[in-house]
Amino acid sequence: MPREFSRALRVGEQIHRELAVLIRTELKDPGVGMITLGDVEVSRDLAYARVYFTVLGDDAARTASESALRRASGFLRRELGRRMRLRIVPELRFVYDDSQAHGDRLDALIAKALRQDRERHSED
């Protein structure tokens, strides 16, 4: 019977859950702002994990949070190793997820186009 999810997906979901708890409870760096973890993509060989995150705030908050997460990646990886039953814990790479900002920009463009279209049709 084939598996529904690959091992990399299952490990990624477990890393996501554990990191959310670790960042909220164990990480004491004030540079980490109000972050939300999005997705965790683990390579097929489980050597690397790309962790996507968003930050509440401006670009300065994003930059500060990104550098704080990179500084804490060793600590987080060690704690993941203690909590998870893996022979090798993936190296964590934190990536800012700009899909929310991109989606907001597209929504604004669509709303502007619709407004302009209504104005043209109301003039006719």
Automatic annotation (TrEMBL):
Subcellular location, record wording: Cytoplasm
This protein's record includes keyword Nucleotide-binding: no
Main location (coarse class): cytoplasm
The keyword Cytoplasm appears for this protein: yes
Pfam families for this protein: RBFA (PF02033)
A cellular component term, taken from the record's GO annotations: cytosol
Biological process per Gene Ontology, one example term: maturation of SSU-rRNA
InterPro entries assigned to the protein according to its UniProt record, in alphabetical order: KH_dom-like_a/b, RbfA, RbfA_dom_sf, Ribosome-bd_factorA_CS
Entries under Gene3D superfamilies matching the protein: 3.30.300.20
Domain of life from the UniProt record: Bacteria
Record key words, sorted: Cytoplasm, Ribosome biogenesis
SUPFAM superfamilies: Ribosome-binding factor A, RbfA
GO MF entry, a single one: ribosomal small subunit binding
Family the entry assigns: Belongs to the RbfA family.
Quaternary structure, from the entry: Monomer. Binds 30S ribosomal subunits, but not 50S ribosomal subunits or 70S ribosomes.
PANTHER family to which the protein is assigned, alphabetical: RIBOSOME-BINDING FACTOR A, CHLOROPLASTIC-RELATED
Free-text function comment from the UniProt entry: One of several proteins that assist in the late maturation steps of the functional core of the 30S ribosomal subunit. Associates with free 30S ribosomal subunits (but not with 30S subunits that are part of 70S ribosomes or polysomes). Required for efficient processing of 16S rRNA. May interact with the 5'-terminal helix region of 16S rRNA.
Record protein name field: Ribosome-binding factor A
Lineage: Bacteria, Pseudomonadati, Pseudomonadota, Gammaproteobacteria, Chromatiales
